[in-house]
Design brief:
The protein is of the alpha/beta class and about 210 residues long. The chain has helices at about 25-40, 50-60, 90-95, 95-105, 115-135, 145-155; strands at about 1-5, 45-50, 70, 140-145, 175-180, 185-190. It has 6 helices and 6 strands.
Length: about 210
């Protein structure tokens, strides 16, 4: 399971969920890096969301595979409703009570017109179950920061309240070995080789001090 490549979101971090932004030039390079890494790995199927950043990353990875990504809307990032596209500072300044409430109950808080991480997790985990039931061999999921974290929490039995202790950088790789009786984590938030300014490999979950999607 990978996260899509970088987006152009401006100088300040923004809440990006269903807002359908394309990959930046760096994001396309990150997708190409994933394509090269996956080149010698046999894949039976590739799944992605219908958001352009996920679909484009999946298409780039599939260029040397002869595969067509399967699009599942259930793999979309969390829906942030009226908070979509707004900066972290704007929300903190204009909606301080809601901002604090989300921090106090990150799993269940719903921004106006949006969904909670619990709801996002329910649909993403359901999609994962269908994927595993209908696929075999090596499977690639091109996901988003929020949905990836939700799936990782589910697979590892981590309470959803701790999802932001799991880091998911643009273009990262997470690897699981799944059998009928066991799920083993092999790598988390790793990179096969770095782009300029990136760390080569991150194996341990880290604290995240914001609640941005993407």
């Amino acid at each position: 399971m990978v996260r899509h490549g970088e987006l152009e979101t401006g100088a300040e971090k923004r809440y990006i969920g269903w807002l359908d932004l394309p990959l930046s030039a760096t994001g396309r390079l990150q997708a190409a890096r994933l394509r090269e890494f996956m080149a010698k790995i046999p894949l039976e199927a590739v799944y992605c969301s219908d958001l352009i950043r996920s679909h484009t990353t999946a298409q780039i990875i599939c260029e040397k595979k002869g595969l067509k990504p399967h699009i599942l809307t259930e793999l979309r990032e969390i829906n942030l409703g009226e908070w979509e596209g707004k900066t972290f500072t704007e929300i903190k300044r204009n909606f301080p009570a809601a901002f604090n409430k989300r921090g106090d109950d990150i799993a269940n808080f719903q921004p106006p017109g949006g969904e909670s991480f619990a709801q996002c997790s329910a649909r993403a985990v359901s999609a994962l179950g269908n994927i595993l039931q209908n696929s075999s061999g090596n499977i690639l999921i091109v996901g988003h920061a929020g949905t990836n974290r939700a799936i990782i929490c589910h697979l590892l039995g981590i309470p959803l309240e701790n999802l932001f202790k799991i880091r998911q950088d643009y273009g990262c790789i997470n690897e699981f070995i799944v059998s009928c009786t066991h799920i083993n984590l092999r790598s988390l938030n790793c990179f096969p080789f770095p782009l300029k300014g990136e760390r080569k490999e991150i194996n341990q979950p880290e604290m995240k001090d914001s609640w941005l999607g993407g």
